[in-house]
Design goal:
single chain; alpha+beta; five-stranded antiparallel sheet; about 25% helix; globular; disordered N terminus; disordered C terminus
Length: about 270
């Protein structure tokens, strides 16, 4: 029948659709990759998320370290970059006790820019307990009889004097901002040591310090020296300005106006916040 001769063309349409789907589906499946929770890339992305959180958390008592990555997925977004979807446990940075679980996304942009992080965490510590710990840290520093100056925290044996624990906690919070900003998909950072720290005396309630911190870059094993001017008040994120350079090239070129009076005659001038 003449009217039915057009039907073979119609019968060819479903295979054509299937072919189009077959071409499209592999691309979609390759765009999302399930990672082994123990992989280096999953752990590195989780650490970047925690560094962002530690800087933004407004708390020294709530600082965390990475426990275990439990689930990790990588999505390739052609226009933007690689985005990691993560579930992981955390530990109290000081005691090593369970601190709760986190859900996070970390986007490493194609363009040169800091990672874009979104993170939500559960807490095992009561918020009141965290605030009390922050106030304890703050009062210990505030009521020092003389401005704090110190070197090599921790020492060569990995020990931190109890009196310097708040100074180390502030270094962890402040340097977390630097490490988050500098991190890429292939380079990550750990705080290795506070090489030196000097307190500035202020007329207001803020605490202010000049730090030289050493960051351990992975996987290059390079040590990066950074000068950091930090101010902090409980229940506020630390305010940080910094300059970094490879060790041996100097990292003492602070910028900005003088603030307060230095803890010693050789203290550097730095930015006012």
């Amino acid at each position: 029948m003449p009217g039915l001769r057009a039907l073979p063309g119609l019968r060819a349409s479903p295979p054509a659709l299937l072919l189009l789907l077959a071409l499209a589906l592999p691309r979609a499946s390759l765009a999302v990759q399930h990672l082994e929770p123990g992989s280096r890339s999953a752990a590195a992305a989780a650490r970047v998320a925690l560094q962002y959180r530690n800087f933004q958390a407004k708390s020294l008592g709530g600082l965390r370290a990475l426990g275990q990555v439990r689930k990790a997925t990588l999505k390739n977004i052609p226009e933007s970059g690689h985005k990691y979807y993560l579930q992981f446990s955390t530990e109290d940075y000081r005691t090593g006790e369970d601190a709760g679980n986190c859900l996070a996304t970390v986007l490493f942009p194609k363009k040169k820019s800091h990672p874009v992080v979104s993170i939500k965490c559960s807490n095992t510590k009561d918020q009141k307990e965290i605030q009390e710990e922050d106030n304890k840290f703050y009062q210990r520093i505030r009521h020092q009889s003389t401005p704090i100056t110190a070197n090599n925290i921790p020492d060569s044996y990995g020990n931190i004097e109890p009196a310097l624990e708040p100074v180390w906690a502030l270094a962890v919070a402040g340097s977390s901002s630097i490490m988050w900003e500098k991190s890429t998909e292939t380079l990550g950072y750990f705080l290795a040591q506070v090489k030196s720290v000097k307190q500035w005396i202020r007329q207001d309630d803020f605490l202010e310090f000049d730090y030289t911190v050493l960051l351990h870059e992975m996987p290059t094993q390079e040590i990066i020296s950074c000068h950091m001017r930090l101010t902090w008040l409980p229940r506020q994120p630390p305010r940080v300005k910094h300059f970094c350079a490879p060790e041996g090239q100097g990292a003492e070129q602070g910028s900005g106006a003088e603030s307060g009076s230095a803890a010693g005659p050789s203290a550097e001038k730095g930015a006012r916040f």
